[in-house]
Design brief:
Strand content: under 5%
Oligomer: single chain
Number of helices: 22
Number of strands: 2
Order of helices and strands: HEEHHHHHHHHHHHHHHHHHHHHH
Structural class: mainly alpha
Strand order of the largest sheet: 1-2
Radius of gyration: 23 Å
Shape: globular
Length: 508
Amino acid sequence: MSSDLADRDAADHEKHSFASAEEVDGVPRKWKVYDEYGTVEDKKLLSKVDLRLLPVLTLLYLLSFLDRSNIGNAKIDGLTTDIHVSPPAYNTALAIYFIAYVTFEVPANIILKRFDPQFWLPTLTFCWGIASIFQGFVTNQASLFGIRYLLGATEAGLFPGVIYLFSTYYLRRERHWRVAVFFGGAALAGAFGGVLAYAIGKMDGIGGKRGWQWIFILEGLLTVVVSVVAYRIVPTWSHKAKWLTEAERSRLLARLAADSDAANKEKFEWVYVRQAFTDHLVWGYALLFHGFAFVLYTLSLFMPTIIAGLGFATWKAQLMTVPPNALAAIGIAIGAWLAAQTGRRAPLIIGSGAVAIIGYIILCSTKTAGAQYVGVLFASLGVYTGNALLLSWPSENVSNQTKRAVAVAMQITIGDLGAVTGVLIYRPEWAKDHYRKPHIIAIGYLLFAIVVASALWWWMDKENRRRAEILGSAGGEVDDALGKVDFEDDRRERVRLGDRHVQWRYQV
């Protein structure tokens, strides 16, 4: 009964809010939606949703990033020496993880769309936790390659799955800072991981195991424990959320229906998968992340090695990874706040890329440890902030639920191919020159990302103006612009066209 009430409430509001494309009672529709659904009750509802979603999902991503990147801490603690893995083979092990990651991302989100995040996301967490533990028992190159592939395959579905789940709870303009908070788990993992690796490394010799083995075992065990608890905490789809009252669920679905298609109980159809693969904007979001992913993962994976290469002892290098990641977390918070205040994403992404380029220029042009460390700080600030802002774009701008799920997964999949390239380019033979050549290539990737962000900004802004002109010439009324249709026919047409509908407005 509650779901019937929610559907009726959402449909009634949708009929009103889509009666006019740009204005409702003389007020711009996009502002009307946020004014109407920005009451004290809505703020309380959002706080309840935030409290249920953000802590647990951010914790899962923190653990995910910790379990994939702690190999960098393990390396400087003796991993490659003990199991006789050459420097090129170590880079290959890093690449193998991302090959598995990009292979399974789109299938994982398709599975999520057909099942339940309350089961699917904790199950993935449990599986990669087990894989992480077994990293502590590798004895040779082959076993390291195999377990890194398994880790990548099991971690692949978390990030795109959570981004899609956010789209079923939040209005489009509300998502970006939630995504930024969620992505902040990556920066926190870097800061937390450095301290944790330093402490666990002190267990060297206990139980006959080396310090790097305990890093994998204990951090993986933490993930497994959290995953078991997560089965009771990770939320299901918004229309089935029993932790909301009937009135809260109805209100939530009405808010979503006024803003996008997120409240619809849409069946899976392959046509929307094809739409995602043929949409040039989806490829644009993916290529944008491709440029930023190159620097994100090379920086996070090689930061301990880069800092150790400046002449610091192993234990000090572990601890000195903390400030760059802490600064990145602050940058993410400021970037998300500015995006919320200005309603603009593209200029902040471009600005973040410019800050990262400054960092890499410092790394390329200086020789002293102090100056190099400043370069790491600038690079971390720009790289993490830019990634936090760009990763919410597809969830805000792609409509049709299945298309959006695939688009989000495509962005991460194609983006992470940049990570594969990055870990192979940061070759050991270039480490002697403080990775100067790879840093120059990183600048090229950042410039590429800035160009893509600029192109997306230009095209979406132009398309928003074009659609406004179409409706403006028809007096702002959908019936005049598209022909007289009844509400149900118009609703079906909007579902079919999604973000290609004349009423849809891109968030730039």
